């Protein structure tokens, strides 16, 4: 079954060229089925790119998904056309009375700023609390993972001596969990961050469970409330060329730019990236949708809470 997306969303044509089955709202109305409702709060600067990355992964499921893109009232994006935001995004105030089967909250380029100094921190906290009563399962990615852990559990973020940048071998610590069904003993996760959350802080909180970890990049996945929340420190959703674009963007503009680790063939940017994480990325998102959204959400969406 396809994803159900807003008419004329740019991701539709991109994914059709990749032979991914998507349908717009007009065609979806002809099907007599309740789709799973997924909200995406997209905080990344290049919103069209992030939309496409997430939709690509969410498409790998036999279920019909209805995607709603959320935006903040207290923040105006600088890198996405106003027309795109007006056409495809709705403010939190417009969606707050609705229920959703799943939600994804993305990262944001705010790592070095204290949470309380983020311009839209108050609205973010309101959305975090709202998700607990209006969403069956929520994925928090990168900065959102750190922000969610801080908001709900007081877990601090710690600055790193240098940027965690590359593709890192990661181990499932609870391989019997449904989120890891079909996973190998080791999978790889893209990381691109200047701060971290630490095992010793998380272990102090009984409601939190570290379920994946890397010897190089540290805590990778944290689960709470039996899978109602997942906090992902990296970017499984990244496209093959995302780190390459980031590396070339910063090269020459900053003095702390290093080659992304375990990424390029023979560590040579001219030979291009070696893609080692996409299979597990697809599996992770499919498992989340199947086992923690579809299998857990009530048939009557208004019963979520």
Automatic annotation (TrEMBL):
Catalytic center residues: 142, 235, 237
UniProt EC number: 2.3.1.31
Cellular component GO terms held in the UniProt record: cytoplasm
Keywords from the UniProt entry: Acyltransferase, Amino-acid biosynthesis, Cytoplasm, Methionine biosynthesis, Transferase
Single biological process term from Gene Ontology: L-methionine biosynthetic process from homoserine via O-succinyl-L-homoserine and cystathionine
Site for Important for substrate specificity, residues: 192
Pathway named in the protein's UniProt entry: Amino-acid biosynthesis; L-methionine biosynthesis via de novo pathway; O-acetyl-L-homoserine from L-homoserine: step 1/1
Localization: Cytoplasm
Pfam families: HTS
InterPro entries hit by this protein: Class_I_gatase-like, HST_MetA, MetA_family
Residue positions binding substrate: 163, 192, 249
Site location (Important for acyl-CoA specificity): 111
Keyword Amino-acid biosynthesis: yes
Catalytic reactions of this protein: L-homoserine + acetyl-CoA = O-acetyl-L-homoserine + CoA
Record-level Gene Ontology MF annotations: homoserine O-acetyltransferase activity; homoserine O-succinyltransferase activity
Family membership: Belongs to the MetA family.
Protein task: Transfers an acetyl group from acetyl-CoA to L-homoserine, forming acetyl-L-homoserine.
Protein name: Homoserine O-acetyltransferase
Organism: Prevotella histicola F0411
């Amino acid at each position: 079954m396809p994803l159900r997306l807003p008419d004329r969303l740019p991701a539709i044509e991109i994914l059709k060229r990749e032979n991914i089955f998507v349908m717009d709202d007009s065609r979806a109305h002809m099907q007599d089925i309740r789709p799973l409702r997924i909200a995406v709060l997209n905080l990344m600067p290049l919103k069209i790119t992030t939309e496409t990355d997430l939709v690509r992964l969410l498409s790998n499921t036999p279920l019909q998904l209805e995607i709603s893109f959320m935006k903040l009232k207290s923040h105006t994006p600088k890198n996405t056309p106003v027309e795109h935001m007006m056409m495809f995004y709705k403010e939190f105030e417009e969606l707050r009375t609705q229920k959703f089967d799943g939600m994804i909250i993305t990262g944001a380029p705010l790592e070095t700023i204290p949470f309380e100094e983020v311009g839209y921190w108050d609205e973010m906290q309101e959305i975090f609390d709202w998700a607990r009563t209006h969403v069956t399962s929520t994925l928090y990615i990168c900065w959102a993972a750190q922000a969610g852990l801080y908001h709900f559990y007081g877990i601090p973020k710690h600055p790193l001596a240098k940027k965690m940048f590359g593709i890192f071998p990661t181990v499932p610590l609870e391989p019997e969990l449904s989120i890891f069904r079909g996973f190998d003993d080791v999978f790889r996760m893209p990381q691109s961050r200047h701060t971290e959350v630490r095992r010793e802080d998380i272990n102090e909180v009984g409601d939190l469970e570290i379920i994946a970890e890397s010897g190089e990049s540290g805590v990778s996945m944290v689960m709470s409330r039996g899978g109602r929340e997942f906090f992902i420190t990296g970017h499984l959703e990244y496209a093959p060329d995302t780190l390459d674009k980031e590396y070339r963007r910063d090269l020459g503009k900053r003095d702390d730019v290093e080659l992304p680790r375990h990424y390029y063939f023979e560590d040579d940017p001219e030979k291009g990236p070696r893609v080692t994480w996409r299979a597990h990325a697809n599996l992770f998102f499919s498992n989340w949708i199947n086992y923690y959204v579809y299998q857990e959400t009530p048939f009557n969406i208004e019963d979520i809470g």
